[in-house]
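Quick one:
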Amino acid sequence: MSGNLLSWEQAVYRLRQQPEKQDLVRACYYDDPIEKSASRFHDSEEWHEIMHVLGKFLPCRVLDIGAGRGISSYAFAKQGCEVIAIEPDPSPLVGIAAIEDLTTKTGLPIKVVRGYGESLPFKDTSFDIVYGRAILHHACDLHNFCKNAARILKPGGIFMVTREHVISRRQDLDTFLRSHPLHFLYGGENAYLLSEYKAAIKLSGLKILSVLGPYDSVINYAPISYKELQGTIASLLTRFTGKMLSNSLVNNSMVFKLMSFVLSLKSQLPGRLYSFIAVKR
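Output:
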Protein backbone atom coordinates (compact mmCIF):
# COMPACT_ATOMS: atom_id res chain seq x y z
CA MET A 1 0.00 0.00 0.00
CA SER A 2 1.34 3.41 -0.96
CA GLY A 3 2.28 5.85 1.79
CA ASN A 4 0.57 8.68 -0.11
CA LEU A 5 -3.00 7.73 0.66
CA LEU A 6 -5.86 10.17 0.27
CA SER A 7 -8.47 10.98 2.86
CA TRP A 8 -11.92 9.41 2.46
CA GLU A 9 -13.24 12.76 1.28
CA GLN A 10 -10.45 13.11 -1.32
CA ALA A 11 -11.02 9.55 -2.56
CA VAL A 12 -14.74 10.14 -3.09
CA TYR A 13 -14.06 13.50 -4.72
CA ARG A 14 -11.67 11.82 -7.18
CA LEU A 15 -14.27 9.15 -7.93
CA ARG A 16 -16.82 11.86 -8.70
CA GLN A 17 -14.47 13.44 -11.25
CA GLN A 18 -14.32 10.30 -13.41
CA PRO A 19 -17.05 10.26 -16.12
CA GLU A 20 -16.93 6.47 -16.42
CA LYS A 21 -17.66 6.10 -12.66
CA GLN A 22 -20.86 8.14 -12.51
CA ASP A 23 -23.13 5.09 -12.23
CA LEU A 24 -21.09 3.98 -9.20
CA VAL A 25 -21.25 7.50 -7.73
CA ARG A 26 -25.06 7.46 -7.97
CA ALA A 27 -25.28 3.89 -6.65
CA CYS A 28 -23.29 4.99 -3.58
CA TYR A 29 -25.36 8.19 -3.19
CA TYR A 30 -22.28 10.40 -3.49
CA ASP A 31 -23.91 12.68 -6.07
CA ASP A 32 -25.20 16.20 -5.53
CA PRO A 33 -27.40 17.97 -4.73
CA ILE A 34 -27.32 16.04 -1.49
CA GLU A 35 -31.03 16.46 -0.76
CA LYS A 36 -31.91 14.78 -4.08
CA SER A 37 -29.46 11.98 -3.40
CA ALA A 38 -31.02 11.39 0.04
CA SER A 39 -34.52 11.53 -1.43
CA ARG A 40 -33.55 8.93 -4.03
CA PHE A 41 -32.37 6.60 -1.24
CA HIS A 42 -35.64 7.13 0.63
CA ASP A 43 -37.54 6.15 -2.54
CA SER A 44 -35.31 3.15 -3.30
CA GLU A 45 -36.25 -0.52 -3.14
CA GLU A 46 -33.48 -0.96 -0.57
CA TRP A 47 -35.12 1.49 1.85
CA HIS A 48 -38.59 0.11 1.19
CA GLU A 49 -37.34 -3.33 2.18
CA ILE A 50 -35.73 -1.91 5.34
CA MET A 51 -39.12 -0.40 6.14
CA HIS A 52 -40.69 -3.83 5.61
CA VAL A 53 -38.37 -5.10 8.37
CA LEU A 54 -38.48 -2.12 10.73
CA GLY A 55 -41.76 -0.40 9.90
CA LYS A 56 -43.71 -1.82 12.84
CA PHE A 57 -41.21 -0.19 15.25
CA LEU A 58 -41.48 3.28 13.74
CA PRO A 59 -41.55 6.10 14.56
CA CYS A 60 -39.04 5.73 17.38
CA ARG A 61 -35.61 6.88 18.59
CA VAL A 62 -32.90 5.81 16.13
CA LEU A 63 -29.11 5.94 16.18
CA ASP A 64 -27.51 5.90 12.73
CA ILE A 65 -23.91 4.75 13.25
CA GLY A 66 -21.31 5.83 10.70
CA ALA A 67 -23.93 8.03 9.11
CA GLY A 68 -21.67 9.35 6.35
CA ARG A 69 -23.61 11.88 4.24
CA GLY A 70 -26.77 11.20 6.25
CA ILE A 71 -28.91 9.45 3.64
CA SER A 72 -30.19 6.84 6.10
CA SER A 73 -30.66 9.47 8.82
CA TYR A 74 -32.74 11.45 6.35
CA ALA A 75 -34.87 8.39 5.53
CA PHE A 76 -35.56 7.63 9.21
CA ALA A 77 -36.36 11.29 9.89
CA LYS A 78 -38.81 11.27 6.98
CA GLN A 79 -40.60 8.43 8.79
CA GLY A 80 -41.05 10.66 11.84
CA CYS A 81 -38.23 9.19 13.92
CA GLU A 82 -36.07 11.05 16.41
CA VAL A 83 -32.69 10.54 14.72
CA ILE A 84 -29.17 10.92 16.04
CA ALA A 85 -26.41 10.47 13.47
CA ILE A 86 -22.95 9.61 14.76
CA GLU A 87 -20.06 10.06 12.33
CA PRO A 88 -16.29 10.55 12.88
CA ASP A 89 -15.48 12.44 9.66
CA PRO A 90 -16.11 16.23 9.68
CA SER A 91 -16.14 16.35 5.86
CA PRO A 92 -18.62 18.54 3.94
CA LEU A 93 -18.72 15.84 1.24
CA VAL A 94 -18.98 12.55 3.15
CA GLY A 95 -19.27 13.46 6.84
CA ILE A 96 -20.74 15.67 9.55
CA ALA A 97 -20.81 18.91 7.56
CA ALA A 98 -22.65 17.08 4.75
CA ILE A 99 -25.33 15.90 7.20
CA GLU A 100 -25.67 19.41 8.61
CA ASP A 101 -26.06 20.75 5.07
CA LEU A 102 -28.72 18.11 4.41
CA THR A 103 -30.66 19.09 7.55
CA THR A 104 -30.50 22.77 6.60
CA LYS A 105 -31.78 22.13 3.09
CA THR A 106 -34.55 19.72 4.09
CA GLY A 107 -35.57 21.08 7.50
CA LEU A 108 -35.44 17.57 8.99
CA PRO A 109 -34.36 17.50 12.67
CA ILE A 110 -31.30 15.22 12.60
CA LYS A 111 -28.93 15.64 15.55
CA VAL A 112 -25.29 15.04 14.63
CA VAL A 113 -22.63 13.74 17.03
CA ARG A 114 -18.96 13.15 16.26
CA GLY A 115 -17.75 9.72 17.35
CA TYR A 116 -17.16 6.04 16.63
CA GLY A 117 -19.21 2.89 17.05
CA GLU A 118 -16.69 1.41 19.50
CA SER A 119 -17.21 4.23 22.03
CA LEU A 120 -20.77 5.50 21.78
CA PRO A 121 -21.31 8.54 24.06
CA PHE A 122 -24.89 7.66 25.01
CA LYS A 123 -26.67 6.37 28.11
CA ASP A 124 -27.65 2.73 28.49
CA THR A 125 -31.02 1.66 27.05
CA SER A 126 -31.58 4.97 25.26
CA PHE A 127 -32.45 3.87 21.70
CA ASP A 128 -35.14 1.75 20.08
CA ILE A 129 -33.09 1.04 16.93
CA VAL A 130 -29.37 1.09 16.27
CA TYR A 131 -28.76 1.02 12.53
CA GLY A 132 -25.69 1.13 10.31
CA ARG A 133 -25.35 0.95 6.54
CA ALA A 134 -22.03 -0.58 5.37
CA ILE A 135 -20.30 0.35 8.63
CA LEU A 136 -19.63 -2.79 10.71
CA HIS A 137 -16.90 -4.03 8.37
CA HIS A 138 -14.99 -0.81 9.17
CA ALA A 139 -14.97 -1.61 12.90
CA CYS A 140 -11.55 -2.03 14.47
CA ASP A 141 -13.12 -4.19 17.19
CA LEU A 142 -16.26 -6.03 16.09
CA HIS A 143 -17.11 -7.27 19.58
CA ASN A 144 -16.73 -3.85 21.22
CA PHE A 145 -18.78 -2.24 18.45
CA CYS A 146 -21.66 -4.70 18.92
CA LYS A 147 -21.34 -4.57 22.73
CA ASN A 148 -21.78 -0.78 22.65
CA ALA A 149 -24.75 -1.08 20.32
CA ALA A 150 -26.36 -3.61 22.67
CA ARG A 151 -25.66 -1.42 25.70
CA ILE A 152 -27.56 1.59 24.38
CA LEU A 153 -30.51 -0.42 23.03
CA LYS A 154 -33.69 -0.70 25.04
CA PRO A 155 -34.93 -4.24 25.81
CA GLY A 156 -36.66 -5.40 22.64
CA GLY A 157 -34.68 -2.88 20.61
CA ILE A 158 -33.40 -3.74 17.14
CA PHE A 159 -29.81 -3.76 15.88
CA MET A 160 -29.66 -3.71 12.07
CA VAL A 161 -26.49 -3.47 10.01
CA THR A 162 -26.69 -3.76 6.24
CA ARG A 163 -24.42 -4.35 3.25
CA GLU A 164 -21.46 -5.73 5.21
CA HIS A 165 -18.51 -7.20 3.28
CA VAL A 166 -17.92 -10.92 3.88
CA ILE A 167 -14.98 -13.16 2.98
CA SER A 168 -14.81 -16.96 3.11
CA ARG A 169 -11.15 -17.19 4.16
CA ARG A 170 -8.79 -14.65 5.69
CA GLN A 171 -6.49 -14.98 2.69
CA ASP A 172 -9.35 -13.68 0.51
CA LEU A 173 -9.12 -10.23 2.08
CA ASP A 174 -6.30 -9.05 -0.20
CA THR A 175 -8.26 -10.18 -3.27
CA PHE A 176 -11.25 -8.11 -2.15
CA LEU A 177 -9.17 -5.05 -1.30
CA ARG A 178 -7.46 -5.12 -4.71
CA SER A 179 -10.86 -5.17 -6.44
CA HIS A 180 -12.41 -2.34 -4.42
CA PRO A 181 -12.75 0.90 -6.46
CA LEU A 182 -11.63 3.18 -3.61
CA HIS A 183 -9.42 1.15 -1.26
CA PHE A 184 -6.27 1.77 -3.30
CA LEU A 185 -6.88 5.51 -2.87
CA TYR A 186 -7.62 5.78 0.84
CA GLY A 187 -6.83 2.36 2.35
CA GLY A 188 -9.85 2.18 4.67
CA GLU A 189 -11.80 -0.86 3.46
CA ASN A 190 -12.08 -4.20 5.26
CA ALA A 191 -14.10 -7.41 5.42
CA TYR A 192 -14.66 -10.16 7.98
CA LEU A 193 -15.68 -13.80 7.98
CA LEU A 194 -19.41 -14.43 8.30
CA SER A 195 -18.72 -16.35 11.50
CA GLU A 196 -16.91 -13.34 12.98
CA TYR A 197 -19.87 -11.03 12.43
CA LYS A 198 -22.29 -13.53 13.94
CA ALA A 199 -20.06 -14.27 16.92
CA ALA A 200 -19.60 -10.56 17.71
CA ILE A 201 -23.36 -9.95 17.62
CA LYS A 202 -24.15 -12.98 19.78
CA LEU A 203 -21.41 -12.28 22.32
CA SER A 204 -22.78 -8.77 22.81
CA GLY A 205 -25.96 -10.33 24.21
CA LEU A 206 -28.08 -9.72 21.12
CA LYS A 207 -30.21 -12.45 19.55
CA ILE A 208 -29.84 -12.74 15.77
CA LEU A 209 -33.21 -12.71 14.06
CA SER A 210 -32.05 -12.85 10.46
CA VAL A 211 -28.91 -13.10 8.36
CA LEU A 212 -29.55 -12.00 4.78
CA GLY A 213 -27.21 -13.30 2.08
CA PRO A 214 -26.21 -11.50 -1.15
CA TYR A 215 -29.38 -12.40 -3.06
CA ASP A 216 -31.78 -12.91 -0.16
CA SER A 217 -32.86 -9.28 -0.19
CA VAL A 218 -32.68 -6.16 -2.35
CA ILE A 219 -31.08 -4.58 0.72
CA ASN A 220 -27.90 -6.37 -0.39
CA TYR A 221 -28.18 -6.59 -4.16
CA ALA A 222 -29.27 -2.98 -4.80
CA PRO A 223 -28.78 -1.07 -7.10
CA ILE A 224 -29.93 -4.17 -9.01
CA SER A 225 -33.72 -4.01 -8.81
CA TYR A 226 -36.09 -6.82 -7.87
CA LYS A 227 -37.35 -6.83 -11.47
CA GLU A 228 -33.81 -7.13 -12.83
CA LEU A 229 -33.13 -10.05 -10.50
CA GLN A 230 -36.35 -11.69 -11.73
CA GLY A 231 -35.00 -11.38 -15.27
CA THR A 232 -31.74 -13.04 -14.24
CA ILE A 233 -33.63 -15.88 -12.57
CA ALA A 234 -35.87 -16.30 -15.63
CA SER A 235 -32.79 -16.57 -17.87
CA LEU A 236 -31.22 -19.18 -15.57
CA LEU A 237 -34.40 -21.25 -15.44
CA THR A 238 -34.83 -21.04 -19.21
CA ARG A 239 -31.26 -22.19 -19.73
CA PHE A 240 -31.76 -25.03 -17.25
CA THR A 241 -35.10 -26.26 -18.60
CA GLY A 242 -34.52 -25.44 -22.26
CA LYS A 243 -37.82 -23.62 -22.62
CA MET A 244 -39.40 -20.26 -21.87
CA LEU A 245 -41.23 -20.20 -18.56
CA SER A 246 -44.36 -18.28 -17.60
CA ASN A 247 -44.09 -15.13 -15.52
CA SER A 248 -46.26 -16.75 -12.85
CA LEU A 249 -43.70 -19.52 -12.39
CA VAL A 250 -40.75 -17.12 -12.34
CA ASN A 251 -42.59 -14.94 -9.83
CA ASN A 252 -43.59 -17.87 -7.62
CA SER A 253 -42.18 -17.01 -4.18
CA MET A 254 -40.78 -20.49 -3.52
CA VAL A 255 -39.09 -20.63 -6.94
CA PHE A 256 -37.73 -17.12 -6.48
CA LYS A 257 -36.35 -17.92 -3.02
CA LEU A 258 -34.80 -21.16 -4.26
CA MET A 259 -33.11 -19.50 -7.22
CA SER A 260 -31.96 -16.59 -5.05
CA PHE A 261 -30.36 -19.15 -2.74
CA VAL A 262 -28.65 -20.79 -5.72
CA LEU A 263 -27.33 -17.40 -6.84
CA SER A 264 -26.06 -16.76 -3.31
CA LEU A 265 -24.16 -20.06 -3.36
CA LYS A 266 -22.64 -19.18 -6.74
CA SER A 267 -21.72 -15.69 -5.58
CA GLN A 268 -18.82 -16.45 -3.28
CA LEU A 269 -16.77 -13.46 -4.34
CA PRO A 270 -14.64 -11.92 -1.58
CA GLY A 271 -16.45 -8.87 -0.24
CA ARG A 272 -19.99 -10.03 -1.07
CA LEU A 273 -22.69 -8.28 0.94
CA TYR A 274 -24.63 -9.55 3.95
CA SER A 275 -27.06 -7.87 6.35
CA PHE A 276 -27.82 -8.71 9.97
CA ILE A 277 -30.87 -8.09 12.14
CA ALA A 278 -30.78 -8.74 15.88
CA VAL A 279 -32.85 -7.93 18.97
CA LYS A 280 -31.88 -7.08 22.54
CA ARG A 281 -33.34 -9.71 24.83
